[in-house]
């Protein structure tokens, strides 16, 4: 295999090559480091690149495998973590120079699980400062760029994770999703991004943005890679007070099952909201494709969809301001101005307004949960637009001017409110060559069905096989 093939091979393909000793972890890491050197000057995906450490880890992995001790599908596979995942002995900045010298003494739970599985940490990935923004802007470490068009945003807040996975810099990346920060960059960069059920993946050792809305999740190039990653990172963690005690299945088990007769709900309000005509056409073709595979299509109504932005925004702003209160007091001048404004605005929201938002959230969740009495999954656009130009404050959708933040979070925030799983998979490209994503959401802890539908679509299309032509 060529280096580029190694960089774009799936976890399953790499794992089989490694287990058969046809390719070594050292070769895989060297190929990815070469890819990073070629593309990083344009993309700016990384805050900290761990080249020497990754090479040493690869040599250890190779020695283990040669002794007959192959740990599983992730052994020797390069992983990149958004730079709010604590990593023992490696700085964790949360996207801010304020923490440029902060070096945690131990791994977060997710990083620990990756290490136990034999995965190799290749670096810490760039992000919107403190994860507080959906566009991937960062004045401290440089803005993130979309590998399909570097003049466009990679999305945020996990922008570096999106660009790194899409460009072949990493096989697996991890992001965190509070209002869409896994799914937004995944959609814009043309990869698979899964927001798992709240409490399924531990948040221990992650810098929080909103305690009750944060979801760590994988950003990868295939649905199976997402499933294989979930097999490693899911599970109860006593160090996370919100961690759920549930049985963890093998998330790959149902991937190849037929979706014949599966009930797919199309949310009417998603298509009534501002939605680019070209994106709508591509998404509707994807839904028709799912129907052609035997799924039953039903139009449903998310009755409180129009309230979801206000519910999510109020809760997020309050909790973010509460967590970062001392930082705002001591380092306000060092914060990126839009992030500072959001934090300061959160301090102005009253306790009564926060409680009212939580009450509205309960009503919203009840209404969405009721939809699953009639359908198995909900499907619609991941984004109303393709990736906008970097630093654009607003976007035009079918002649209407919409704020960028409001536009790119309109379809993702509802599932942070419910805390239920949602995945984005590539489903086409615009005439200008930018990726379009299809979002599939499901019941709490029913990742298996969400992955099943996503894999059924992916396995009968070739959008996930297309890669950006990006080099320095």
Write structural notes for this entry:
This protein is an alpha/beta fold and about 475 residues long. It has a single domain (about 5-240, about 255-465), classed as Amidase signature (AS) domain (Amidase signature (AS) enzymes), CATH 3.90.1300. The chain is built from 17 helices and 15 strands. It has helices at about 5-10, 10-20, 25-45, 50-65, 110-115, 160-165, 185-190, 225-235, 270, 275-290, 305-325, 325-330, 335-345, 350-370, 405-410, 415-420, 445-460; strands at about 45-50, 80, 120-125, 145, 150-155, 170-175, 190-195, 215-220, 265, 295-300, 375-380, 395, 400-405, 420-430, 435-440. The strands form 3 sheets. It has an 11-stranded mixed β-sheet. Strands 4-5 form a two-stranded antiparallel sheet. α3 runs antiparallel to α4 (about 50-65), α6 packs parallel to α7 (about 185-190) and α8 (about 225-235) packs antiparallel against α17 (about 445-460). It is globular. The chain starts with a helix and ends in a 13-residue tail after the last helix. The mean pLDDT is about 95.
């Amino acid at each position: 295999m060529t280096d580029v093939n190694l960089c774009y091979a799936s976890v399953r393909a790499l794992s089989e090559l490694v287990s058969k000793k046809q390719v070594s972890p050292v070769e895989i890491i060297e190929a990815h480091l070469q890819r990073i050197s070629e593309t990083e000057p344009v993309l700016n995906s990384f805050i900290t690149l761990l080249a020497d450490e990754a090479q040493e880890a690869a040599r250890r992995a190779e020695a283990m495998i040669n002794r007959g001790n192959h740990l599983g599908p992730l052994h020797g596979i390069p992983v990149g973590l958004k730079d709010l995942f604590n990593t023992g002995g490696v700085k964790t900045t949360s996207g801010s120079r304020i923490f440029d010298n902060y070096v945690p003494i131990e791994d977060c739970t997710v990083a620990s699980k990756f290490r136990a599985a034999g995965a190799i940490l290749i670096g810490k990935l760039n992000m919107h400062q403190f994860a507080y923004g959906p566009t991937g802007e960062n004045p401290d470490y440089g803005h993130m760029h979309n590998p399909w068009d570097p003049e466009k945003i990679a999305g945020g807040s996990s922008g570096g994770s999106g660009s790194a996975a899409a460009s072949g810099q990493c096989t697996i990346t991890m992001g965190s999703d509070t209002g869409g920060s896994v799914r937004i960059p995944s959609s814009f960069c043309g990869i698979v991004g899964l927001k798992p059920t709240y409490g399924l993946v531990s948040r221990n050792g992650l810098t929080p943005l909103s305690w009750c809305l944060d979801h760590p999740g994988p950003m990868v190039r295939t649905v199976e890679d997402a499933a294989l990653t979930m097999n490693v990172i899911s599970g109860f963690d006593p160090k996370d007070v919100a961690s759920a005690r549930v049985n963890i299945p093998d998330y790959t088990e149902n991937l190849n099952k037929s979706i014949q007769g599966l009930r797919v709900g199309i949310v009417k309000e998603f298509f009534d909201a501002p939605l680019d005509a070209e994106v709508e056409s591509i998404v509707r073709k994807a839904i028709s494709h799912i129907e052609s595979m035997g799924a039953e299509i039903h139009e449903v109504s998310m009755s409180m969809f129009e309230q979801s932005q206000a519910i999510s925004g109020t809760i997020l702003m309050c909790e973010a301001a509460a967590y970062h209160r001392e930082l705002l007091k001591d380092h306000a001048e060092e914060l990126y101005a839009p992030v500072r404004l959001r934090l300061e605005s959160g301090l102005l929201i009253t306790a009564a307004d926060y409680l009212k938002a939580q009450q509205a959230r309960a009503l919203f969740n009840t209404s969405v949960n009721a939809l699953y009495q009639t359908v198995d999954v909900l499907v619609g656009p991941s984004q109303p637009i393709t990736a906008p130009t970097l630093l654009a404050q607003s976007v035009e959708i079918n002649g209407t001017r919409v704020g960028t933040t409001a536009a790119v979070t309109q379809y993702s925030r509802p599932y942070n409110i419910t805390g239920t799983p949602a995945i984005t998979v590539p489903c086409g490209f615009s005439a200008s060559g930018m990726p379009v994503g299809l979002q599939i959401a499901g019941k709490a802890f029913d990742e298996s069905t969400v992955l099943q539908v996503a894999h059924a679509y992916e396995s009968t299309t070739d959008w996930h096989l297309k890669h950006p032509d990006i080099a320095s």
